[in-house]
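B., you asked whether I could sanity-check this one before it goes into the benchmark set. Here's the sequence:
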Amino acid sequence: MKRIIPLLVLLGLIIISCTNTKTETNKTAEIEKLQLENDSLKNIFTKSKATMKNQITTFLTFQDNNAEHAMNFYVELFDNSEVIKVQRWGKDGPVEEGKIMMAKFNLNGSLFMCSDSPPIHDWNFSPAVSNYIDCENEKELERLFAKLSENGTVTMPLNNYGFSQKFGWVIDQFGVSWQLNLE
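And here's what the prediction gave me:
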């Protein structure tokens, strides 16, 4: 009996030792897996950051100090939109204090920027350059067309022009041109 107890203790220690080795091996494998995942995420983040630096952004220059009003109008109009950053002119600036020096906003996944331009230029927005939107359904097309054409100019009323189900072209109240399409 005296010999059995030490043998049982020794056997128990061997079992515990083997179990700990398996647990440590599993933990090591799990840590290695997490490190690979972390490295993969870092790689994706780095590529995304580089891609964003090369992203083409629409920049709207307002000469009538309407940048904030237009930006807020667009952000409210389009789903999944938000103001990202706003820098304002100070009291010693070349325009009225508080006007937009530079603002960034997102319109349903597309990055835009705008400003209230201090100098008045010989140019303004041109319908030759427009924002083109493929609408998901007729309801969305008609809603956007109605809101964008309010106090604006309809250059092509909603209709079937042969290249899609329904299409319309509007210059909004701020002078920005929008083409709205339903495939």
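One thing to flag: Residues 154 and 170 are 5 Å apart (CA to CA). Otherwise nothing jumped out at me.
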